[in-house]
Amino acid sequence: MTLSFVVPGLDEAASEKIIAILSNRLAQEQEAALVLKHAHWNVTGPNFIAVHEMIDPEVDAVLAQADETAERISTLGGSPDGRPDAIVRQRTWKGVDLTGRRPTADYLKALIDYYDVFIADDRKAIAELDELDVISSNIIQDHVQELEKFQWFMRSHLE
């Protein structure tokens, strides 16, 4: 990895580690937006409109998280990679296997499972970033708070 610069207070090795962690988070954030949009388009059933309309703002929220993560990578002297092949290359998590039009409960259960992994991966990144860069850690902490809130919405919808 070639850095454009190193921010004051960090060395090159730490910056590279931080950028690698954030690049992984960026890929999962971008994928999550795609997974959510897929569910938004394909949910069916009696609760269709409620779930359809609940998902779209979360797509926007996750895309905003991805933008913030990418901008942090740039701030640290790195180059964020937002291409589809970067998502695949960075992928260390299980995706959502649902395809086609399905009942809202099927998609919500799959998204809840996806969010379990997404949140756990973010929490692991926070622990690693706490040792390297509290600023980057705080960014991901804010993201987790939003993800956990939406997961609560999905769980509550199924109760």
What do these coordinates show?
With 159 residues, the chain is mostly helical. The chain is built from five helices and two strands. It has a two-stranded parallel sheet with strand order 1-2. Helix 1 packs antiparallel against helix 2 (48-75) and helix 2 (48-75) packs antiparallel against helix 5. The radius of gyration is 17 Å and the shape is elongated.
In short:
The protein is mostly helical. It has one domain (21-158): Ferritin, core subunit, four-helix bundle (Ferritin, Up-down Bundle). The chain has helices spanning 12-42, 48-75, 84-90, 104-132, 134-158; strands at 43-44, 102-103.
How much beta, percentage-wise? under 5%
Name the helix and strand elements from N-terminus to C-terminus, one letter apiece: HEHHEHH
What is the CATH H-level superfamily?
A: Ferritin, core subunit, four-helix bundle
Tell me the number of helical segments per DSSP (H or I, 4 or more residues long): 5
Largest sheet: 2 strands, parallel
Tell me, what is the CATH class?
Answer: Mainly Alpha
The largest beta-sheet arranges its strands as: 1-2
